[in-house]
Q: What sequence folds into this?
C-alpha cells in the first residue's frame, strides 16, 4: 500500500497517494521546479525527466525520457527518477550541464531542464551516441530563443561521429564517465505491485470529499474479475500521455469511483510475429513497437521504424500506448497505418467479459463504446507499404494531412486522414480505387482529378476550415502521387526522373536519412578567436541549467495571499454585447470582484495597448450598440476570486447577452456582407484594422502601378502556417504595488520601455511610477493584426497562464485554461 521509488538518489515512500496525481505535480510540491510545463501535451519537452526501471529478463536497467506532465505518480513504484536538480549542483555540474554552460546554450532557460534530462537519458544508455541517436533523443525538445546552434554545439561534443571542427561555437569538451553515475538500487528490483483505496479529505472540515479504489491487475483474468466486481463509475489509465485517462462506466454524482490501470497486465504487452501475422498488445508503447521492428529485416519493418521515428517525439513514444491512441482517435500517424493494413482490434466488453473483434477503421470513425477495452491489435505484414504526411510545424509533428498505401496480395488499400475537420479525432477516409486507377495518373494534376472525385474536402464558403480545403486537396493528391511513384519504382515500372528526384528528397530529407544538427561556420579568423566570437556566459545561466526557480510559477512569494482571476471572453466572432449579468458568478464562494474596460483609470483613450499601431483593445470597448466584439475569445472582463478554481467557475457563470443571440438576427448579420470568417472574406469586405495615421503598415517601394505594364506578371498566394517561435514566445507578467506608490513589474517582454509606457497609459500615471521591468515567465500566443481578423493558435489542452494587477489593488494572478478540441489554425474577425 506504499508507493516506493528513488528520486534523485533518495528513497521516497508514499502511503496510498492519490492515483491521479502526476509526477510533475509531486515534483513541484517538493519544490523541484526544474521540470516545467510548456503545453498540455508535452510537445515542447520542458517536463522531461529520466525514468529508470529494472529489466528482469535482460538483468539490466532501462532508461527512458518521460514527460512528467501526464506520468502518474503511482507509475514511479519500483523505479528510479532523476530530475535536473539531481544530476549536478552548484559546486559540481554534471558534464552535460557544464557543456551547456560552456556553449552558452540557453537564453531564457525555460527549456534547459528538459534538454538536459533528454541528453542525460541518452548518455546513460549510450555514452558515445551517434549524431542520429542524439537527433532522435532530442526530438521532443523545443527552444524558443537560441535557434538550436549553441545547444547542438554542446550535445555534439558527446557524439561519436561529429568532428570538433564542425561545431566551432564551443571548442572545449567535457568528458562523460558513466562509471560515476548512480547504480540502480537493489531494493527496487523486486517490488510488488498492489491495489489500494485512497480517500481525499477536506482540509477545512475533515470530511471525506471522494474515494478512489485503485486496481492494477497483472493478468487478463484479474482484469476480468475487477470488471466483474466494479460495474459503476469505472475509469481507466492506459499509458502516460494526454490520451491516458478514459471513462468506462460513468456516474458523475458518485463520490466513489474505481480507477483501473492496465500498465502491468502482461497479456496486453505482448508483441509477436509468425511469418507475416503480427500481434500487438494494446498496452505497448510506440517505442516498444519501434524496438520490436528494429530487429526485423523486412522492408515493412524498416519503413515502419522510419515512420514512427517521425511520429510525436521520444518522450511521448515512451509513454503513449497504441490502445489509448486508437480509443482516443487522436491525430495519430500509427492509426492511419493500421487502417491501411486492415488491422483488426480485439475488444473486451466489461458488461459480460465477452471478447469481440472489430476493424480499426470502424473504431476510428465511430469511437469505441463505453464499457469496452481494447486488448490486442492484429494485422498481416503488407507486401508494399508507403506512408507520408504534411506536418504542422516540424518533422516529427502529427500529420496535418497524411497518406498511407499498403498492398497485401492483390488487395491495395489507400487511406488518408484530414485532421483539421475532426473534433479531437482524425477523420479517416478511404480512397476507393483499383490498382489500375491508382497507377493510371501520369502527373500530379491527373492524380488530383482522381482524388477530388473520390474524397471529400471541406470547401464550403462560410466554413472556418475552408481556408484549408484547397490546401488539403493539393497535399493529399501530392502524397498519393508520391506513393504511386514509390510503388512503380519497387515494381520496376518506368518513372519520370523528376518525380523520382522529388520522392528521393522526401524520403531522404524528411524521414531521417540525412537529418543533421545545425552547423555553424567559423567566420572569425583563428587569430581573433580568443577575443571575438566566443560565448559570453550569462550570470543566470548556471542557475537555469540547475533548475533554480526563476519563473513566475516557481515563486513562493506569489503563491500565498493573492487573488486569482480568470477571463470572461466572447464566444463568437462578431456582434455587440448588450448586457453582462454577474448574479450567478457572485454566488461562487470566494468571489471578489469583476472588472472590465469601465474600470480602467484612463477614461479618455485608455483600454488600448500600443501593440504595433495602438489599435488593440485590452477589453471589449463600448460602442453605440453595446460592447463591440472583434473576435472570438476576446477578453470582456476579469473575475477575481480567492482561489483559481473559484475564479474559473465564476467566470463561466457570467451571463453575456449579445444582440445576435436570436438565430434569425445572427443569420442576417452573416448574410450582410460585413462579417468576415476568414482572411479572404476580410479582404473582400475591406475589413482592415483602423488606420490611425501613425505607423500605418503600408510599405511602398518604387511605382507599384508600373507592375501592370510588365511583359510577364507572376501572381499567386503563399499561405504561411504558424511557427514554433510564435507558440513558444514568453508573455507572462506580474505586477504588484510598492510602498512608495509605484509598482514592480515582472514581464517577459523584449521591450521593457514599451511595457512601462502601456501600463502608465492605461492607469493614467507617470511612467516613473513603474519602477522595474524584469523578464520572466512563459505563455504562447500569436496575434496578426493586419486585417480585422485575429489568428490564434493554441495547442489543445494548453494551459495559458497570465498574470496582471490593477493600480491601487492587491496583486492579482490569474490562470486561464484554454482547451481547443481541434489543434488547428482558427480565424475570427468582426465587421
A:
Amino acid at each position: 500500500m506504499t508507493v516506493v521509488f528513488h528520486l534523485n538518489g533518495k528513497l521516497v515512500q508514499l502511503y496510498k497517494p492519490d492515483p491521479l496525481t502526476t509526477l510533475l505535480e509531486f515534483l513541484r510540491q517538493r519544490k523541484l521546479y526544474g521540470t516545467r510545463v510548456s503545453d498540455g501535451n508535452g510537445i515542447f519537452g520542458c517536463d522531461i525527466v529520466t525514468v529508470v526501471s529494472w529489466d528482469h529478463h535482460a538483468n539490466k536497467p532501462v532508461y527512458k525520457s518521460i514527460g512528467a506532465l501526464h506520468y502518474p505518480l503511482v507509475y514511479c513504484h519500483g523505479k528510479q527518477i532523476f530530475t535536473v536538480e539531481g544530476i549536478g549542483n552548484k559546486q559540481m555540474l554534471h558534464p552535460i550541464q557544464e557543456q551547456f554552460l560552456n556553449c552558452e546554450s540557453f537564453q531564457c532557460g525555460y527549456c534547459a531542464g528538459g534538454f538536459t534530462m533528454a541528453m542525460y537519458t541518452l548518455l546513460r544508455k549510450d555514452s558515445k551516441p551517434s549524431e542520429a541517436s542524439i537527433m532522435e533523443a532530442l526530438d521532443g525538445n523545443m527552444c524558443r530563443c537560441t535557434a538550436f546552434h549553441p545547444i547542438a554545439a554542446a550535445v555534439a561534443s558527446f557524439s561519436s561521429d561529429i568532428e570538433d571542427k564542425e561545431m566551432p561555437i564551443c571548442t572545449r569538451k567535457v568528458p562523460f564517465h558513466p562509471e560515476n553515475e548512480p547504480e540502480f538500487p537493489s531494493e527496487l528490483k523486486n517490488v510488488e505491485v498492489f491495489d489500494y483505496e485512497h480517500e481525499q479529505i477536506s482540509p477545512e472540515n475533515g470530511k471525506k470529499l471522494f474515494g478512489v479504489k485503485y486496481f492494477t491487475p497483472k493478468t487478463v483474468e484479474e482484469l476480468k474479475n475487477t470488471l466483474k466486481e466494479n460495474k459503476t463509475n469505472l475509469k481507466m489509465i492506459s499509458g502516460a500521455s494526454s490520451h491516458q485517462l478514459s471513462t468506462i462506466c460513468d456516474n458523475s454524482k458518485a463520490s466513489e469511483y474505481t480507477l483501473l490501470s492496465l500498465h502491468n497486465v502482461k497479456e496486453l504487452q505482448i508483441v509477436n510475429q509468425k511469418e507475416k501475422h503480427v500481434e500487438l498488445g494494446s498496452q505497448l508503447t510506440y517505442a516498444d513497437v519501434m524496438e520490436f521492428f528494429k530487429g526485423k529485416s523486412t522492408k515493412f519493418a524498416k519503413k515502419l521504424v522510419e515512420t514512427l521515428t517521425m511520429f510525436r517525439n521520444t518522450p511521448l513514444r515512451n509513454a503513449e500506448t497504441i490502445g489509448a491512441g486508437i480509443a482516443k482517435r487522436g491525430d495519430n500517424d500509427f492509426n492511419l497505418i493500421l487502417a491501411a493494413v486492415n488491422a483488426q482490434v480485439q475488444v473486451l466488453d466489461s458488461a459480460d467479459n465477452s471478447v469481440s473483434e472489430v476493424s480499426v477503421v470502424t473504431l476510428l470513425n465511430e469511437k469505441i463504446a463505453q464499457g469496452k477495452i481494447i486488448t490486442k491489435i492484429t494485422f498481416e505484414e503488407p507486401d508494399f507499404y508507403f506512408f507520408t504526411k504534411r506536418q504542422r510545424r516540424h518533422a516529427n509533428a502529427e500529420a496535418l494531412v497524411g497518406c498511407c498505401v499498403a498492398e497485401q496480395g492483390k488487395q491495395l488499400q489507400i487511406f488518408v486522414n484530414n485532421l483539421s475537420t475532426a473534433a479531437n479525432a482524425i477523420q479517416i477516409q478511404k480512397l476507393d480505387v483499383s490498382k489500375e486507377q491508382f497507377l493510371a495518373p501520369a502527373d500530379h494534376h491527373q492524380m488530383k482529378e482522381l482524388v477530388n472525385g473520390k474524397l471529400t474536402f471541406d470547401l464550403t464558403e462560410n466554413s472556418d476550415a475552408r481556408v484549408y480545403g484547397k490546401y488539403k486537396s493539393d497535399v493529399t493528391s501530392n502524397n498519393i502521387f508520391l506513393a504511386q511513384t514509390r510503388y512503380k519504382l519497387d515494381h520496376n515500372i518506368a518513372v519520370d526522373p523528376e518525380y523520382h528526384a522529388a520522392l528521393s528528397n522526401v524520403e531522404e530529407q524528411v524521414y531521417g536519412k540525412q537529418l543533421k544538427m545545425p552547423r555553424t561556420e567559423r567566420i572569425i579568423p583563428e587569430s581573433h578567436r580568443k577575443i571575438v566570437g566566443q560565448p559570453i556566459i550569462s550570470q543566470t545561466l548556471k542557475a537555469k541549467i540547475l533548475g533554480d526557480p526563476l519563473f513566475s510559477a516557481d515563486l513562493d512569494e506569489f503563491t500565498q495571499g493573492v487573488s486569482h482571476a480568470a477571463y470572461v471572453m466572447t464566444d463568437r466572432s462578431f456582434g455587440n454585447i448588450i448586457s453582462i449579468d454577474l448574479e450567478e458568478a457572485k454566488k461562487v464562494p470566494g468571489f471578489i470582484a469583476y472588472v472590465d474596460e469601465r474600470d480602467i483609470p484612463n477614461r479618455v483613450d485608455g483600454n488600448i495597448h500600443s501593440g504595433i499601431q495602438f489599435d488593440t483593445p485590452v477589453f471589449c470597448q463600448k460602442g453605440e450598440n453595446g460592447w463591440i466584439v472583434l473576435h472570438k475569445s476576446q477578453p470582456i472582463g476579469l473575475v477575481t476570486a480567492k482561489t483559481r478554481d473559484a475564479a474559473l467557475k465564476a467566470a463561466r457563470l457570467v451571463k453575456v447577452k449579445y444582440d445576435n443571440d436570436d438565430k434569425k438576427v445572427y443569420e442576417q448579420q452573416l448574410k450582410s456582407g460585413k462579417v468576415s470568417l476568414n482572411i479572404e472574406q476580410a479582404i473582400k469586405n475591406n475589413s482592415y484594422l483602423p488606420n490611425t495615421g501613425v505607423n500605418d503598415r503600408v510599405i511602398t517601394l518604387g511605382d507599384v502601378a508600373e507592375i501592370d505594364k510588365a511583359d510577364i506578371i507572376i501572381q499567386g498566394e503563399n499561405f504561411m502556417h504558424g511557427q514554433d517561435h510564435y507558440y513558444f514566445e514568453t508573455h507572462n507578467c506580474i505586477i504588484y504595488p510598492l510602498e512608495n506608490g509605484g509598482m514592480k513589474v515582472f514581464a517577459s517582454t523584449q521591450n521593457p520601455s514599451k511595457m512601462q509606457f502601456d501600463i502608465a497609459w492605461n492607469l493614467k500615471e507617470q511612467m516613473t511610477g513603474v519602477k522595474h521591468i524584469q523578464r520572466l515567465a512563459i505563455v504562447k500566443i500569436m496575434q496578426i493584426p493586419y486585417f480585422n481578423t485575429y489568428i490564434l493558435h493554441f495547442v489543445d489542452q494548453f494551459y495559458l497562464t497570465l498574470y496582471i494587477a490593477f493600480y491601487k489593488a492587491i496583486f492579482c494572478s490569474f490562470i486561464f485554461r484554454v482547451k481547443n478540441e481541434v489543434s488547428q489554425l482558427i480565424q475570427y474577425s468582426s465587421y
User: Anything to note?
Assistant: The first helix runs from residue 23 to 29.
